[in-house]
Design goal:
The chain is α+β, with helices and mostly antiparallel strands. The chain has three helices and five strands. Strands 3-2-1-5-4 form a five-stranded antiparallel β-sheet, covered by helices on one side. The protein is rod-shaped, with a radius of gyration of 29 Å. The two termini are 28 Å apart.
Length: 179
């Protein structure tokens, strides 16, 4: 029979190994770049969603609060605040104004229940939104301060990043199975 010299077999195995290595590197780079592009896109979308929710919250409260504050209807005002505390990024809302007006609602640490804020209570949020409460476009009745947290946004972004890692690992496993 025909036998190949041992040197040629070593060279062929060496070329095959190098090709396999370059293929693994190439696929890993492509998967990593694709994953990072997806992460950036998700991150941008999450930020846009947060900003849209924030703007929507501002518009709703600017429309809903003046009537309740003007009528001195604390029950209506509390219900309005409670409705807005449904968005998990809203930690607390306080309304302050003339004649000692100080109404606030805050999410408890268990995050499922709401309670009245103590007058001196200062919630810790990493984003604050201040809305003037103006009745019939002329009389300023007070100010609403909304304490927001970006922690949900940060958590979602971390989860997007963690989704990339299994894809990288999976592509490497598939390539190593080829060899």
């Amino acid at each position: 029979g025909l036998s190949r010299p041992k040197g040629i077999i070593k060279v062929m195995n060496s070329i095959k190994s190098k090709l396999r290595l370059w293929l693994m590197i190439g696929v890993t780079v492509v998967v990593a770049i694709t994953g990072l592009m997806t992460y950036q896109q998700n991150r941008s979308q999450d930020e846009e969603d947060y900003q849209a929710q924030r703007a929507s919250l501002q518009a709703r409260l600017a429309l809903a609060l003046p009537h309740g504050v003007w009528q001195m209807d604390d029950a209506y005002t509390r219900l309005t605040l409670d409705a807005e505390l449904g968005w998990s990024s809203v930690l607390a809302i306080r309304i302050t104004g003339d004649a000692g007006l100080n109404i606030g609602r805050v999410r408890n640490s268990d995050t499922s229940s709401l309670r009245d804020m103590a007058p001196a209570e200062k919630p810790v949020g990493d984003d604050t939104l201040t809305i003037p409460i103006i009745y019939q476009n002329r009389e300023k009745l007070g100010v609403a301060t909304i304490y927001l947290s970006r922690s949900q946004l940060a958590h979602r972004q971390t989860m997007h990043l963690l989704e990339i890692l299994p894809d990288l690992r999976q592509s490497q496993d598939r390539l190593s199975d080829l060899g």
